[in-house]
Amino acid sequence: MTLKDKVAIVTGSGRGIGKAIARKLSSLGAAVVVADIRFEEAEKTASILKGEGGKALAVGTDIADRSQVEDMVRQTLSAFGKVDILVNNAGWDKIEPFTKNTPDDWDRVIAINLRGPIFCTRAVLDHMIERKYGKIVFIGSDAGRVGSSGEAVYSACKGGVIAFMKTLARENARYQINVNCVCPGATDTPLLAEITGGETGKKIIDAMVNAVPLRRLAKPEDIAPAVAFLASDEAGFITGQTLSVSGGLTMC
Ligand SMILES: NC(=O)c1ccc[n+]([C@@H]2O[C@H](COP(=O)([O-])OP(=O)(O)OC[C@H]3O[C@@H](n4cnc5c(N)ncnc54)[C@H](O)[C@@H]3O)[C@@H](O)[C@H]2O)c1
User: Fold this and answer.
1) C-alpha–C-alpha distance, residues 246 and 129, integer Å
2) For ligand 1, mutation pick of 17, 24, 162 (most atoms within 8 Å of CB)
């Protein structure tokens, strides 16, 4: 499998799953735009990729802000001349029952997990249509396929992302643009550590692991190869699909 001469944008690749995806795409030959709201983290990832012999550009971008997203795509085009691959990875969540969420929480979760991927996709699509080439991979969640207690609005966003992805796949197949979604289960990342702190958090993690047939949390490196495959030409006849990478947590 190769991504030689491809240009990829990976949102939220300053840390966690996105960072592992950025490293994987880079190791396969893609130039990678590391777009993250935490610019310093984005710079760290970009310098790792460059240290490993890759081409990378760090861009500070809040995907919930459409003008910043458009600027990030402009910077990509000016640095690398094209966009072949978009990985809509950046996301955020807070675990608590729906009745405890505030409207501000709903807005933040929707802005990052649903509006952000819509903005990023819209910002690259005309260019991909014009070139009749593109690979868009969403990072969903098993929460969006089967629900997840404590993640009501997040699950709604991830379910929305899956439906959005399928419609984009139908609308853009004529332009040879493949659109797919990878759904991680619980994955050992800084986000998971932040939202499952303390003694209750440990119980949540134990319960998550017990629900996984392969009996462990995913590592970010477990998710990245599936994304790389769907972003590659070897998956050229796959579109509109949702692939869970969750140790068998969901089998649907
Ligand atoms: N960790 C899990 O258990 C898990 C499970 C299922 C799905 N996911 C999904 O995987 C993706 C990555 O999650 P993670 O666990 O690696 O999270 P993480 O918080 O460890 O990393 C996410 C990165 O996204 C960046 N980010 C957050 N908001 C942003 C914004 N508005 N604009 C740009 N960048 C932003 C953060 O700065 C961070 O670098 C998310 O879409 C998440 O919903 C995670």
Assistant:
1) 32
2) 17
- Residue 175 annotated in active site: no
Percent of the chain with pLDDT over 70: 100
Which parts of the chain have pLDDT scores under 50? none
β-partners of residue 182 are 139, 243
CA–CA separation, 63 vs 101, rounded Å?
Answer: 22
How far does the centroid of ligand 1 lie from the alpha carbon of residue 174, in Å? 31
Alpha-carbon span 65 to 152, nearest angstrom: 23
Q: How many CA atoms lie within 13 A of 129 on its CB side?
A: 11
Are 187 and 142 spatial neighbours (Cβ–Cβ below 8 Å)? no
Q: Can you list the domains of the chain with their CATH numbers? A: 7-187+221-242 (3.40.50.720)
